[in-house]
Amino acid sequence: MLKMAKKTKAKLPNVAFGFGTKYHLTADEVMVYIHIQFAKQVGLMDSEITRTTIDMLIDDLDWWTSKESRDRSKMIKILESLEKKGYIKIESTNEKLAKGILTITIIAEMREVKVESSVSWKEKSFKFFGYTEIYGDDYNLAEKDGQKMMVISYVLWRSGVEGYKIANKEWELVLGVSDKTARDIVDNTPVVKISGAKYKDDNGQFKQETNSYVLDKNISIKNKMKKPEHSATNKSYLEKLRENVTDVNVLTDDEVFEQIFSKNKFIEFNGYKVWRETSCPIVKEQGENKFAKLRESGNEWVQEKLENEYQERLAHKRRIQEMMEQQIPSDDDIWYQEEFNPSYKRKEDTIDISSFLD
Fold it and tell me: What pTM value is reported for the model?
């Protein structure tokens, strides 16, 4: 996974958290907005400008799925929403954003915007103003996940205000999800909850103060996510394997985990890419075992197909990067006007993989 240098930073206007206002960003929009700033090319005179493409953004964020056209459409909608809300300005070499080189300008004036949000359960309104600096190590902790990025950014801002607390209802509104989902999201981040003190109110009833949160950059997400221990006899084979996995791309994505470890799941490109690039020994071993079984059953074309697509994507990315470094596109760059599609096509035959995988 691509890591950002600790000293690099992005600036997130705090109105992005302004639930109920026109400036409130979704988790994906926050992730893309922050990533755009980390993706600035060295040498550009204007520090607020980034040159990129739709494919590069998706690739950098590891957001590809088996539906590439849908992935591109999703990224375009995110960028257009950021522009509509006033956070960025987009210029493209092609009227179709998916086929053009994008020049994205961060609108610095958004850092000066102030908004307020009122709720029935709080006497004073919430005030959103200023901006939060997100450093490279903060960005890396989010693991390309917008919800995690939103939580980390919000805690970075709020924990800087002395005595500030964050209510569970506040998390619901900021993240735009239900109470249970909000709790699960926060629990799945390197954020530590400091439970509020218990006290007696004027009627003698026990109550608890609102919780506060701090960011712990040394916390292990794997340990934090660990479920209550079950007896060894009750643990499934896959659960035992998961305990030894160290790759966060596998631990935080059940689909990828099953593609690599489950005998009943066909491995697709996103799982193959993680397996190809992982440094986790057990992930490497299990993936190789799966491909060995495929070869034994006469289906070696599966790995061949995935490897060809993997190499084509790398070459495609290198070629775009080379063109980006030239800064100015030319008429000779017509090759990019065609949508990228891997040349190696999957066989039409279907495979009952359970017949040859243990």
Answer: 0.66
